[in-house]
Design a protein that fits this description.
homodimer, eight-stranded mixed beta sheet, three-stranded antiparallel beta sheet, 182 residues, mainly beta
């Protein structure tokens, strides 16, 4: 299962780690027979924005793996110490040097088999002074008919763009999705 | 900072771990000078339900720490391998043996200083056959005027209950909140 981060040693006592059933727990986990620590692993949150300017939206062409060369909305892992809106705004600054005002939460997309949950926000660009950050090759505005649908990097991003361009209720509904990929 | 899980040894190679600045990174992290592994830590997702029956909502009195003896909505850590709705439904079954139908996402509440994000769902009870799970002392329905406001276990739960009983738009709006506690 690809969501499991491999552990070989206990991060608490340094002894070799075990993996398997835990009494009173439905899931198998890493645990330490020496110091009895159970090492829980949980899904990670990815936050990002759908930055808008008139009828167009901003996409970033990825300069790094995975999916290098494909297009995405500016997004990345939420960090400790920030709330979800701060994280979405930070990622938009880092990947596109774009100054945005966050409008509202727009999509929540779970990817169970890799332990990820995307939270994407509608946002408005405050100006057009964006340019690629270190993780982007190119940053561009696209109208609905220009979106490179076959070159979108991630399912959660495609879901968000499809909802944005195809749904009528952009005022309040938060669209929920789950990846079916196994 | 209370969101940092202490590490003493590298879980990859077993050598002593370091903590500090990482080149090209704005945050301090655990890293291993021996095998060069950077150990990222990210916020965790807590999912739960606001289960409803007519004009009342279901609360659980906690049987475990933290906040033992205080009241909460059934909620807990999202696990790898499940989507956010599945996690919310599972927690509601575990803590209250309650059978619910999830209606929609209702609140998203970030707690930056402990690295948590709550996703709470409006849900309808399918029947009244609920009873306390292992982590609950008691499970009860409360009307608006009966809610034990001074004995609610967590800020995110109080936020959710306040929005539910005080806001007018229960049909579509997802309420966003951030803890100000430092």
């Amino acid at each position: 299962m690809s969501f499991i981060e491999q552990m070989k040693f206990c991060s608490h006592c340094g002894n070799k780690i075990s993996f398997g059933d835990i009494p009173g727990d439905d899931l198998q986990r890493f645990f330490c027979k020496s110091c009895q620590t159970i090492h829980y692993q949980n899904p990670k949150i990815i936050v990002g924005c759908l930055p808008r300017w008139e009828e167009k939206v901003l996409l970033c062409k990825r300069a790094i793996s995975p999916r290098k060369g494909l297009w995405t909305l500016p997004s990345g892992y939420l960090e400790n110490g920030e709330d979800v809106e701060q994280g979405a705004k930070r990622e938009t600054e880092e990947e596109a040097n774009a100054d945005v005002e966050i409008i509202r939460l727009f999509t929540v997309y779970s990817i169970p088999h890799i332990g990820q949950v995307y939270l994407q926000f509608l946002a408005d660009l405050n100006n057009l002074d964006f340019y690629p950050g270190a993780e982007s090759q190119e940053v561009r505005l696209f109208g609905k008919k220009e979106i490179p649908w076959e070159q979108i990097a991630f399912g959660a991003i495609k879901f968000t763009l499809e909802k944005y361009f195809n749904e009528q209720n952009l005022n309040s509904e938060v669209y929920m999705g789950t990846s079916n990929t196994r």
